[in-house]
Write a structure and sequence with these properties.
Strand content: under 5%
Number of strands: 0
Distance between the termini: 38 Å
Largest sheet: none
Number of helices: 13
Length: 287
């Protein structure tokens, strides 16, 4: 169990899960549906199984690349901690569970479940042919608030879509920072990433631009939420300010000539930003 938890980096669930809960809470506020614990558990189950599928597939499909990279050769498959066949069974099992869970939510979620799997699994292949791979990862995580909202309401709405775009540019920006560690390796193997294609400085500039877009969308989401629901959203306002502050503080941690704090910027800053924002939004809903 510990090996599988490490394989899928379960702790990184902290990035998308709070936004899924925001989408779920938003759906309950906008629709006439009453709160349902069973539906919440189904949404959480979808989050876990979808993420397990995506991360395990990424590790499986990249096993040879990981084995050749000094930074990643200690991962579970290349180091021999777990066999390729067991990982493949794990991927198929979680994908089937994900689709099955959507069946019990509503028809729209069920019909769109293969599309969601295609997006979140497709990301793992994109580094082989386009430096836009970071945006594909961002799209995958942006499905969290939109999907959770659809799970509650059974329809799309512009408000969670705005939040989804904010997540897209947030994730894409910090994934570029994370990819700086493999710039030389990616170039040597003919792999694509924004750092490998544009170089460190330009990559950081692109990441910074993505985060500016994300911050602007977070403010728009706050304003539109206030307009639509006629609520002040005081705690969400505080959460938005904290989120934006942590968003840009990571750019002070990472310099073109100093990548020693990449992991601090990647996990700590972004994890805290997501968690605090989600908690403060849910407090507003509860109040």
């Amino acid at each position: 169990m510990k090996v599988f938890f490490n394989l899928v980096k379960f702790s990184h669930t902290i990035f998308a899960l709070p936004f899924a809960l925001v989408g779920f809470g938003l759906g309950n506020m906008i629709s006439t549906e009453s709160f349902s614990w069973s539906k919440l558990l189904l949404v959480l189950g979808c989050m876990v199984t979808a993420r397990n599928t995506a991360m395990a597939f990424n590790r499986y499909i990249d096993r040879d690349i990981d084995a050749a990279n000094a930074r990643t050769k200690v991962r579970e498959i290349p180091s021999g901690l777990i066999s390729e066949n067991k990982v493949l069974v794990f991927i198929i099992t979680n994908a089937i569970l994900f689709v099955a869970l959507t069946w019990f939510i509503n028809p729209l979620c069920f019909y769109l479940s293969p599309v969601a799997l295609l997006v979140i699994m497709g990301y793992s292949l994109t580094k082989r042919f386009t430096f836009l791979c970071h945006l594909i990862l961002g799209i995958g995580l942006s499905l969290a608030p939109v999907g959770a909202f659809v799970a509650v309401t059974g329809y799309f709405h512009f408000l969670p879509i705005i939040l989804g775009f904010a997540v897209l540019f947030w994730v894409s920006g910090f994934d570029i920072i994370y990819a700086l560690q493999d710039e030389s390796f990616d170039q040597s193997k003919g792999l694509f990433s924004i750092p490998a294609y544009f170089g460190t400085q330009k990559a950081l500039n692109i990441s910074r631009f993505f985060h500016i877009v994300s911050a602007a969308l977070m403010v728009i989401f706050l304003y539109e939420s206030h307009q639509l629901l006629n609520s002040i959203f005081l705690f969400t306002m505080i959460g938005t300010l904290i989120f934006i502050g942590l968003l840009f503080s990571q750019h002070k941690l990472v310099r073109p000539n100093d990548l020693s704090k990449v992991n601090l910027a990647f996990f700590t800053n972004n994890g805290i930003a997501s968690l605090l924002y989600g908690v403060l939004f849910l407090i507003d809903i509860w109040l």
